[in-house]
Specification:
The structure holds 2 protein chains of 2 kinds. By secondary structure, chain A is an alpha+beta fold. Helix content of chain A is 48%, strand content 25%. Chain A contains 7 helices and 10 strands. The longest helix of chain B is centred in the N-terminal third of the chain and has 26 residues. Chain B is flat. Chain B is built from 4 helices and 13 strands. Classes of the chains: A alpha+beta, B alpha+beta. At the A-B interface, helix 2, strand 3, strand 4, helix 4 and helix 6 of A face helix 1, helix 2 and strand 1 of B.
Chain lengths: 237, 215
């Protein structure tokens, strides 16, 4: 057996040259692809970057951060995701879906614009609340016995399950919550005065949105919402 | 004719106008003193440069994320007497509980005063106990008009707290109860009572350091 070095070298070159060519081709193609990808990414980030929307987000985040730094319970009207939330220190402690009918969409939009006002205010304090009718959660006779056993005034133990109540902000903005229970009016005269007052103010502008709610959730919202409570709005856009 | 207008219509109009005005004033919500949070004075504008603006947005998102509990957390709703073990998007346990009654007690001899409220705020789970024994505090004896025992061992009650308890600081616990029929009513001295099945589930799943939000 003899070894022909020249022939072997030629074979090696024949194999080596196409391999190098192939490698060069692959590198060139992948480089081009990368370039295309980067340029595509740049274009999509250009498209994604919307300064107006970023400014909104920034304002919202700043407001939310300042609220999270306090120990105040905060009500969030999240129109973007259709949720009503209570937040404590940045955490959602209660939420409820806000499902409005199509016919209410104008009212919701009006409410949002009125809330934001000319200065695009994201936070307003809750001005007032009014309970129209409610049902006592536990019979008074039961609480009288329990109260005696635990040495507590039975009135402290009672919870009023709301049938209908309103949360009221300045500029005649009202969120009315209704449940499916049939309660008793707490004060017929008081209710009448509130309703007449609202009717008289209506010509000067009023927005009321109505939300149906499960009674337990309505109880939570009614009791947790206190005048002065910060209310944050997430606009629907 | 003119006299009739003067003496009847005008006073009637004045009375009616006054009534309308009174109702409008009465039904106007009280003016709330607005803190700085309610106006834009505390908000800083987004930097003009796009890269700086994007960086600022990322930093703001990160700052906000620090406040969010991230994983599972406990919410104690004293208004509806509910304990909810949840994440931001899902609910793991939704149970009826009993929270603090808000009742008060004063020791006529020493003048010591107690308010039996469940404390509001943010806490963390700092203990997990199986078969917990309750060390009856002084107020338990004063409330029952019993003599406070001198012997410490007489204070312990093995039944009262049920089979499990998880503490959330300052001596407050979420625990079982022998009074399950009272769940849903605010009758406790500040602790949070749960039914035996719910406290068992919570005890087995909850980890030390889990945030507890009470409102």
């Amino acid at each position: 057996m003899s070894f022909d070095g020249g022939k072997f070298g030629l074979r090696l070159r024949r194999l080596f040259l196409p391999a190098v060519f192939l490698m060069l081709c692959t590198v060139t193609i992948s480089c081009n692809q990368k370039k295309e990808e980067t340029s595509q990414a740049a274009t999509s980030s250009d498209k994604k970057w919307n300064r107006a929307s970023a400014e909104w987000d920034y304002r919202l985040m700043q407001t939310e951060l300042s609220l999270a730094k306090t120990l105040d319970l905060c009500l969030v009207l999240d129109l973007k995701h259709g949720k009503l939330k209570l937040k404590l220190k940045g955490a959602v402690v209660w939420n409820y879906p806000m499902n409005f009918s199509a016919s209410d969409s104008d009212k919701v939009s009006d409410f949002m614009h009125r809330f934001l006002g000319d200065n695009n205010r994201l936070v307003r304090p809750l001005a007032d609340k009014h309970l129209f009718a409610a049902e006592r959660k536990t019979p008074d006779s039961v609480l009288a016995i329990v109260g005696k056993a635990v040495n507590v005034n039975p009135e402290l133990l009672q919870r009023e399950l709301p049938e209908r109540f309103q949360l009221i902000w300045d500029d005649n903005m009202i969120l009315e919550v209704r449940t499916d229970i049939t309660g008793k009016p707490l004060s017929k005269l008081g209710n009448a005065v509130i309703e007449i007052g609202q009717a008289l103010k209506r010509p000067f502008g009023e927005t009321m949105i109505v939300l149906s709610m499960r009674v337990d959730d309505a109880l939570t919202l009614y009791r947790a919402a206190t005048p002065g409570m910060p209310t944050l709005i997430y606009p629907s856009y | 004719m003119r006299r009739w207008i003067l003496f009847v219509i005008v006073p009637l109009a004045v009375i009616l106008g006054g009534l309308v005005l009174a109702i409008m004033i009465l039904t106007s919500p009280p003016r709330i003193k607005e803190a700085a949070i309610y106006n834009d004075s505390t908000l800083t504008p987004l930097p003009q440069d796009r890269k700086a603006a994007q960086k600022e947005l990322q930093q703001m998102k990160a700052a906000l994320a620090k406040f969010r509990p991230g994983g599972r957390y406990i919410v104690i709703n004293t208004h509806a007497n509910k304990v909810v073990y949840r994440t931001e998007d899902s609910i793991i346990i939704d149970a009826t509980c009993s929270t603090g009654s808000g009742g008060q007690l004063t020791d006529s001899i020493t003048g010591r005063h107690w308010v039996f409220d469940t404390p509001r705020g943010v806490f963390k789970i700092d203990s997990k106990l199986k078969e917990p024994w309750w060390r009856k505090p002084d107020w338990a004896y004063i409330e029952e008009e019993e003599k406070i025992p001198r012997d410490e061992s007489e204070r312990y009650d093995p039944e009262m707290l049920g089979a499990y308890a998880v503490g959330f600081g300052d001596g407050y616990f979420i625990h079982g109860t022998i009074y399950e029929r009272l769940l849903g009513i605010s009758v406790t001295h500040g602790c949070v009572r749960l039914g035996s099945a719910d406290i068992e589930k919570l005890y087995k799943d909850v980890k030390m350091g889990t945030p507890v939000y009470v409102f």
